[in-house]
Amino acid sequence: DVQLVESGGGLVQSGGSLRLSCTASGYSGTAYCMGWFRQAEGKEREGVALIDQDYTKVYADSVKGRFTISQDNAKNTVYLQMNSLKPGDTAMYYCAADSFCSAVPAGFRYWGQGTQVTVST
Asked: Can you give the pLDDT at residue 12?
């Protein structure tokens, strides 16, 4: 099975930046779609950004122009660069992987433990 470990969360002021990392292990050599999701307290988990096996990137409207997803295959790592952060971005951020991309969390089999991002005013 694929194991995912996120890092890079923390507390940042509004307008600041953070870069999240997700390192994967347990690959069988099959390429995966990688995604970032987030879940704020009391809300449902929502998609933030996806990158598929062809390196096509998809973003939620709420983060377009501010967040960038990228990957380093040599390091088996996917990144989420988050700029111009807002208090509304406060959430637990999760990395996910599966053979095919999905816009919904139920479409991903493999998940990391999450990393907390808190944006203060």
From this structure: 98
